[in-house]
Design brief:
elongated; binds 3-methyl-2-oxobutanoic acid; 8 strands; TIM Barrel; 41% helix; 8-stranded parallel barrel; alpha/beta
């Protein structure tokens, strides 16, 4: 059954929530078949699929292309579209217009935006336009230039207090949940206890209401030289497996081990079966 926003809110203190990123049709299908609660079409698309250096480069049109692919799989999971950098920073009107594209054209169920107090006006405007909003606090990758890189946030009492205030604000504005990324586990636990909506952690320890990971990180779809963040758990090493399979494919071609008769079509009853007979027929036609 399709997971809805009220269902996600109702899961707090009942059971833990699972969230996974997806950027295309087959991954969306697999994630839904595994009964993962939420699919996030993350702006991590920029790095893991499109090869950009950071998330700042990806556009609304690029994100939308992938949101559409994900929702075409009709997943039961709630689909959240990540609003890219500069799509919700300029004005309320532009923010609503961009978010509405994800809902109307992309068929997403909700949007995610990074930031707390700074984004208050935009969050209010979105919720007034009936668009469910997931927040994102802590290490917000779109702020990497302000933060001076991807650094754990909320490490002093003062900064942890600011994070808590932002979390309480998101709750009071009507966000249905928020991501807590790259924060000390004790800060994540305190925030989780103080808000009425589910917190979804990534690098936030175990005392949150759910966990999210990036699809390609979890499956190990990155080459050896790529260094995972501390919070990543690699469940597989698919990159290496794919390279192995590609090597086998190349070898099979060169050795004529592929295709075999099993992968080839016969010509049927009315056509000559052997090359020799074909050649005779072709000669007749051409003469
Ligand atoms: O874009 C993304 O993948 C995210 C998750 C890491 C939360 O924002």
């Amino acid at each position: 059954m399709k997971i809805t926003v009220p269902k996600i809110i109702g899961l707090k203190d009942k059971r833990l929530i699972s969230m996974m990123t997806a950027y295309d049709y087959p991954s969306s299908k697999a994630i839904s078949d595994a009964d993962i609660d939420i699919i996030l079409v993350g702006d991590s698309l920029a790095q893991v699929v499109l090869g950009y250096d950071d998330t700042l480069s990806v556009t609304v049109d690029e994100m939308l292309h992938h949101v559409k692919a994900v929702t075409r799989a009709n997943p039961n999971s709630l689909v959240v579209a990540d609003m890219p950098y500069m799509s919700y920073h300029v004005s309320k009107e532009e923010t609503i217009k961009n978010a509405a594209r994800f809902i109307q054209e992309g068929k997403a169920d909700a949007v995610k935006i990074e930031g707390g107090k700074k984004r208050e006006k935009m969050i209010k405007a979105l919720i007034n336009a009936e668009i469910p909003v997931m927040g994102h606090l802590g290490l917000t990758p779109q702020s990497k230039n302000i933060m001076g890189g991807y650094k754990v946030q909320g490490k002093t009492l003062e900064l942890a207090k600011e994070l808590l205030e932002d979390a309480i604000l998101l709750d009071s504005l009507g966000c249905f949940s928020f991501v807590l990324e790259g924060v000390p586990k004790v800060v994540a636990q305190t925030i989780t206890e103080k808000v009425s909506i589910p917190t979804i952690g990534i690098g936030a320890g175990v005392h949150v209401d759910g966990q999210v990971l990036v699809y390609h990180d979890l499956l190990g779809m990155k080459s050896k030289e790529y260094i995972d963040a501390k919070f990543v758990k690699r469940y597989d090493n698919q990159y290496e497996k794919v390279v192995e399979v590609m090597k086998k494919f190349k070898k099979d071609i060169e050795n004529k081990d592929f295709p075999t008769d099993d992968h080839s079509y016969d010509s049927g009853d009315s056509l000559p079966e052997t090359l020799k007979e074909w050649k005779k027929e072709v000669k007749k036609i051409l003469s």
